[in-house]
């Protein structure tokens, strides 16, 4: 088991990463001072895979538990579902001190996190991420949100969990597409911060995809410590934290234009490709580093082309994105492997040109 601390001015917390961690949840919670009532928020699929057993263990340890289920899918990351959850929490007489366990992928983490942040002005939140994407990214850093009026993550709040427990054993049941999806964020960490890690991913890609436990634990841990260190320096996303958005300026636009048919990781993969090409054209990134980034994305099984999406619509969506400074879209541009710069001077004409080049 590996432990990583997210150091914050207030509300620091620990991420634990390892095998068989979910078996230890009751004693870990008791160690945090929780004893009686708690709520597990999950979806029916993850509930049947991991929730039932977790619940049985908690009951055995003397907890009074309630499993609250939300249907599976991004469409349910909504205020409406949050409303249902508040009602159910009231029904089970949850109090402000009742811990909420968010069990599932990024959708569940964002929704249950938002509910925990707002129910009675904030109940203790424990993240139990079960997708690669959630273990390496969404469960860390305290961003919670729901989608609203067709806009992604439109309503949300920064709210740090009390603890994150990433049991890498749970990844074994993950469909291949979701493993690939999570790999986009893994590659992102290499590009933005750590050349050695980038090379490690390049060399062990096949084994990573097979999810061999020791290796996955190492990979998840490295990602978590990079994110923890960035979040520690800029909890509220006012500067440095922007670098975590490498690939996300075009990525979010791709998600929007595809009506969320593209998975987040796939969209980010195309976005990372576009940002690498833009950076190269601006004379910032060398051709060989650009090729290395694009090859790794491709070899991971992620898309590097827009496929059936209209580049003009993607460009329009970029202009509407919330990641802007002084009215200019913000791009995170690789300088070399392991280093990026935040840039708001990318010309729209260049973005347009690159988008049409990667249009298939
Ligand atoms: N808060 C943040 O900082 C942050 C960062 C990145 C992404 N996100 C959000 O995360 C969401 C995407 O998360 P995701 O990619 O984890 O998708 P997801 O939560 O939809 O999970 C993908 C699918 O895998 C299933 N699943 C989960 N765990 C499983 C397991 N162990 N075995 C089998 N199936 C399992 C889920 O039920 C779902 O069908 C998006 O809403 C995105 O906006 C948030
Ligand atoms: Zn992301």
Entry summary:
The protein is an alpha/beta fold. Helices cover 48% and strands 19% of the residues.
Question: What's the helix and strand layout?
Answer:
Blueprint: E1 2-6, E2 13-18, H1 25-31, E3 37-42, H2 44-60, E4 64-69, H3 79-91, E5 100-104, H4 106-118, E6 125-129, H5 132-138, E7 143-148, E8 151-158, E9 163-167, H6 176-193, H7 195-209, H8 213-233, H9 248-257, H10 264-281, H11 287-299, H12 311-320, E10 324-325, E11 328-329, E12 331-336, E13 339-343, H13 348-357
Parallel strand pairs: 2-9, 3-4, 3-5, 5-6, 6-9
Antiparallel strand pairs: 1-2, 7-8, 10-11, 12-13
The structure holds nicotinamide-adenine-dinucleotide and zinc ion (ZN).
Residues 43, 45-46, 49, 72, 74, 77, 104-108, 110, 130-131, 133-134, 137-138, 141, 143, 153, 170, 173-174, 178, 181, 264 line the site of nicotinamide-adenine-dinucleotide.
What does this structure look like?
This protein has helices at 25-31, 44-60, 79-91, 106-118, 132-138, 176-193, 195-209, 213-233, 248-257, 264-281, 287-299, 311-320, 348-357, and strands at 2-6, 13-18, 37-42, 64-69, 100-104, 125-129, 143-148, 151-158, 163-167, 324-325, 328-329, 331-336, 339-343. It has 360 residues and is an alpha/beta fold. The chain folds into 2 domains: 2-173, Rossmann fold, CATH 3.40.50.1970; 176-357, Dehydroquinate synthase-like, alpha domain. A 7-stranded mixed beta sheet has the order 1-2-9-6-5-3-4, with helices on both faces. It has a two-stranded antiparallel sheet with strand order 7-8. Strand 5 (100-104), helix 4 and strand 6 form a beta-alpha-beta unit. The structure holds nicotinamide-adenine-dinucleotide and zinc ion. Residues 43, 45-46, 49, 72, 74, 77, 104-108, 110, 130-131, 133-134, 137-138, 141, 143, 153, 170, 173-174, 178, 181, 264 line the site of nicotinamide-adenine-dinucleotide. Nicotinamide-adenine-dinucleotide binds at residues 43, 45-46, 49, 72, 74, 77, 104-108, 110, 130-131, 133-134, 137-138, 141, 143, 153, 170, 173-174, 178, 181, 264.
